Amino acid sequence: QVQLVDSGGGLVQAGGSLRLSCAASGNIVSINAMGWFRQAPGKQRELVARISNGEAPDYADSVKGRFTISRDGAENTVYLQMNSLKPEDTAVYYCNANVVSFRGFPPRGFWGQGTQVTVSS
Fold first, then answer.
1. DSSP code of residue 8
2. What span, in angstroms and rounded, lies between the C-alpha atoms of 44 and 70?
3. Which of 34, 49, 84, 94 could be joined to 78 by an S-S link, Cβ 3.0–4.6 Å?
4. Strand 58-59 and strand 46-52: pairing?
5. pLDDT (tens digit, 9 = 90+) per residue, 60-90?
6. HSE of 103 in the Cβ direction (CA atoms, 13 Å)?
7. With the C-alpha atoms ordered 80, 86, 92, 98, is the resulting torsion angle positive or negative?
């Protein structure tokens, strides 16, 4: 089994910054991609940022220029630096990873437990 533990959320004023972290552990042969999604009350979960092996990071238009995703491959950890936060960024943020747990088998998606980000105006 694979576990993702995400952390770093909190309450911040508009214009402030937060840094989210997500560490993957367990039965991991390789990780093809890691990313962050968010879900606000009454809305569907949406992609925020994703980083795949050998590709440039991908961002939602709403966060381009404000958020930066990075990954420490050796530690199976992904980070999301969030700057210039806005009230509309308020949501539960979930880490996601596509993990190969057994050689020769396709990757599976796993989720973190979520971390709350609240931006006050």
1. -
2. 24
3. 34
4. antiparallel
5. 999 999 999 999 878 899 999 999 999 999 9
6. 0
7. negative
What pLDDT does 32 receive?
A: 93
Residues of the chain with pLDDT under 50: none
The pLDDT value given to residue 75: 80
Q: Phi/psi class of residue 29: alpha, beta or left (left: φ > 0; alpha: ψ in -120 to 50)? A: alpha
CA distance linking residue 114 with residue 117, whole number of Å: 10
Give Rg (Cα) of the chain: 14
- Cα–Cα separations (whole angstroms), residue 43 to 47, 88, 89, 94: 12, 12, 12, 14
In one-letter notation, the amino acid at residue 33 is A
